[in-house]
Design brief:
The protein contains 21 helices and 25 strands. By secondary structure, it is of the alpha/beta class. Strands 1, 2, 3, 4, 5, 6, 14, 15, 16, 17, 18 and 19 form a 12-stranded mixed beta sheet that branches. It has a 4-stranded mixed beta sheet with strand order 20-22-23-21. Strands 7-12-13 form a 3-stranded antiparallel beta sheet. Strand 5 and strand 6 (114-117) form a beta hairpin. Helix 9 packs antiparallel against helix 11 and helix 14 (331-337) packs across helix 15 (350-356).
């Protein structure tokens, strides 16, 4: 059996100008990065502005498990399958972070015969967007420290600096650091820390900005610190925003690549959904809607995180109106939710499936709360039995949703024909009545409470003293009327990763709230979620190598 990278390396890719030509993009509107990837020009946005929008399809999933669900694989395969049934489709996906690539989760280019290529480039440096975001973030940090070192004209309180440095790597040793040690020339000693690049507010800003002017305006609004007399300090006060925008001007342009079956894919932006808003860029999604009849995008982790933020943050800000949700699950993952150990998931266990399928039901109910029709995609494995499939069929019928047994990993687009047709049929037969879950003008605590009750199914929310203090400060600054972005474990509907299925009799604990004024939302920290992950006992990096000819191995 071939590995993902072996399959990808055998792909017959088209030159990127051919992919662009199939979308009606002129040669002058692409900026090639080699033969198989390119940036899309600003002029292309203007040329396509008056075109009608296609249909927007969101791919999301149940809560992730060690068994794997294959959400990105289904996203890629669905686009390939759309082409198989004669539809003009395009992907709009996030870029992978190096953290998971070298850690445990893996990259974000799909798997099997449903991948985006060139997968080695995409999963590693790609077109340099992550590095540009990291540089812009750390330039602001350097200028904050320099301002204090050069006489501190703004009166910044070094104990109340909110903006952290970042690095696109899992490095737990950098979570909490001390900077400025040594002699006076080394700056002001203070506590600091790093977060992973995909959790940076700069990443969120890049993904939500409408254009370069909007990007600059958002950068200026970043709340970076407080003064000794408790006044806010913004990035605009530091004077870094013009230089930051210069670093980001090319990163703001979406990237064009292709799937194994030469379906066009726009990959741009990469915020995690457990610690950020989990969606690709607004610009990439909007451009996809102008270039194709169907745009398939995804949101990170389960629908309680990525999809909720897609609807309540991205769609709200961008004026997007999704037509359908594809909810990905596997029978193995649902059995895991029913209490079956990972080692026994290949064995038939109808009782465990019937117990664990409550997780799928909850996610379906949650998606319907946004007024968007749902199609369930069962990512099929050889070990799935007829009796287990019958449980899925009965459940979906009871919930009033279509379902499809997709064999995309093994068969590519051919294995998702039924899924593609059912998605199209659902869009035609069931109009979407998309609406956000809450009014952003409500008080912050009330918005958090609505998400906790309606999506997580919690009995209530407990706010620590620190969270209460932070919320009062945010609302006093006039930032209370914004969406909220909850940082929470992806493994459970609750804030406890050990609680599987549909947890009951629990409360969500909010330990802190921080304002991302440039992004336009308040980040709500629950449980012990961290914005700088660590590496596992055996990192994936230990299996990656490159030969004397430059051929990479071990990358999935």
């Amino acid at each position: 059996m071939l590995t993902d990278i072996e399959i990808a390396q055998q792909a017959k890719m088209k030159k990127i100008y051919e992919i662009a030509e199939e979308l009606g993009i002129e040669a002058d509107d692409i900026e090639p990065y080699g033969h198989y990837k390119a940036k899309l020009s600003e002029e292309l946005f203007r040329k396509t502005a008056d075109r009608p929008d296609g249909k927007l399809i969101l791919v999301t999933a149940i809560n992730p498990t060690p068994a794997g669900e294959g959400k990105t694989t289904v996203s890629v395969g669905l686009a390939q399958s759309m082409a198989k049934i004669g539809k003009k489709a395009i992907l709009a996906l996030r870029e992978p972070s190096l953290g998971p690539v070298f850690g445990i989760k893996g990259g974000a280019a799909g798997g099997g015969y449903a991948q985006v290529v060139p997968m080695e480039d995409i999963n590693l440096h790609f077109t340099g967007d992550m590095h540009a975001i990291t540089a812009a973030n750390n330039l602001l940090c350097a200028m904050i420290d320099n301002s204090m070192h050069q006489g501190n004209p703004l009166g910044i309180d070094q104990r109340r600096i909110l903006f952290k440095r970042c690095l696109d790597m899992n490095d737990r040793a950098l979570r909490n650091t001390i900077v400025g040690l040594g002699s006076k020339v080394n700056g002001i000693p203070r506590e600091d820390g790093f977060q992973i690049t995909v959790a940076s507010e700069i990443m969120a800003i890049l993904c939500l900005a409408a254009d370069l002017d909007d990007l600059k305006a958002r950068l200026e609004r970043i709340l970076v610190a407080y003064t000794y007399d408790n006044k806010p300090v913004f990035a605009k006060d530091i004077g870094a925003c013009g230089a930051m925008a210069a670093l980001l001007k090319d990163a703001l342009k979406p990237n064009l690549v292709q799937t194994l079956e030469n379906t066009p894919a726009i990959m741009h932006g990469g915020p995690f959904a457990n610690i950020a808003h989990g969606c690709n860029s607004v610009r990439a999604t909007k451009l996809g809607l102008k270039l194709a009849d169907y745009t398939i995008t995804e949101a990170g982790f389960g629908s309680d995180l990525g999809a909720e933020k897609f609807f309540d943050i991205k769609c709200r800000f961008a004026g997007l109106k999704p037509s359908c949700v594809v909810l990905v699950a596997t029978i193995r993952a649902l059995k895991y939710n029913g209490g079956v150990p990972k080692t026994d998931l290949k064995e038939e266990n109808v009782a465990a499936l019937e117990k664990g399928i409550v997780n799928l039901k909850t996610h379906i109910e949650n998606m319907h709360k946004f007024g968007v029709p749902v199609v369930v995609a069962i990512n099929r494995f050889e070990s799935d039995t007829d009796a287990e499939i019958a449980v899925i069929a009965r459940t979906c019928e009871e919930m009033g949703v279509r379902y499809s047994l997709a064999e995309i990993f093994a068969k590519g687009g051919e294995g998702g024909r039924d899924l593609a047709q059912k998605v199209c049929d659902t869009i035609e037969s069931t109009p979407s009545n998309y609406k956000p879950l809450y009014d952003e003008k409500l008080p912050i605590k009330e918005k958090i409470g609505i998400i906790a009750r309606e999506i997580y199914r919690a009995d209530g929310v407990v706010f620590t003293a620190q969270a209460e203090k932070s919320i009062k400060e945010i609302e006093a600054l006039g930032f209370g009327e914004t969406p909220v972005c909850v940082a929470k474990t992806q493994y459970s509907l609750s804030d406890d990763p050990a609680k599987l299925g549909k947890p009951e009799n629990f409360e969500i604990t909010v330990r802190d709230v921080k304002m991302s004024a440039g992004a336009g939302f308040a980040v709500v920290y629950t449980g012990d979620i961290m914005t700088m992950p660590g590496l596992p006992k055996v990192p994936a990096a230990t299996k990656i190598d490159v030969d004397s000819m430059g051929n990479i191995s071990g990358l999935f």
